[in-house]
Amino acid sequence: MLPLLLLALSDVPGPDPVAEALARIDSLSGYRLTLRSQGSGGEEIIHYSYRRPGDVRMDMESPYRGAVLIYRHDTGKVQLWPFGSPGRRPALSLRPTNRMVRSSQGHRVDQSDVGTLLRNVQRLQQHGSTRRLEPATHEGRPVQHVVVEAEPGRAVHEVARYDLWLDDETLFPLRVASYDRQGQRMESVLLEDVQLEPDFPADHFDP
C-alpha cells in the first residue's frame, strides 16, 4: 500500500500547472459561473460574472438572496443593491474594503477573480512545494489535482496549503480548498456551470 501512496504523491513532470492555468485565464475576456463556498461563516452561493480588465458582478443566492453588487474597475467602487433590481433602485456606493461587501472569509470584491486566486497560489509556490497528483475526476470531468504547500511557518493571507482541481481541458479551477498552518480547512469552494467567453448583456455590469 505504501508504494502506491508514494506514487500518488510524487511530482508529475511537465509545465507548472498553476502558471499554465493562469496563462489560460489571463487570455480570456470574461467568464461566468456559480460559486458555492463553505467556510467558518457558513455557505455562500453566488452567481459570479467577470469581465476583463476587472469588472465583477455578483448575484447573491445565499445568504442574502436577491442582493446584487457590481464592482467597476474604472470607478474603484462597489454598487450594492441589497434587494436586487440594479438600475431601478438607488444603490449603496461603497469602497471594496467595506465590511458590507466582503465575504465571510474576508475576501474583497475587487480581488475575487480566479486570476487573483492563482496569483496567491503562485506566491505560496515561491516558498513551498507543488505536487500534481495522479489524474482524477470531478463531477464526471477529468481534472488535474494540484497541491501547493508552503514551507513551515509560511502562509499567504493565512493560507498554508491550496488544493486545486483544474479542468483537464481548459485548466479552469472547478474546486479549490484552502488550509491554515495547522492543517485545518479554512474554505472549500466549488465553481460550477462555468462559461468561458460568454455573451454578457450590454448592461450586465452597468450600475
UniProtKB/TrEMBL annotation:
GO terms for biological process: protein transport. Gene3D superfamilies: Lipoprotein localisation LolA/LolB/LppX. It comes from the Bacteria. Keywords: Protein transport, Signal, Transport. The keyword Protein transport applies. Monomer. This is DUF1571 domain-containing protein. It comes from Billgrantia desiderata. The lineage of its organism: Bacteria, Pseudomonadati, Pseudomonadota, Gammaproteobacteria, Oceanospirillales.
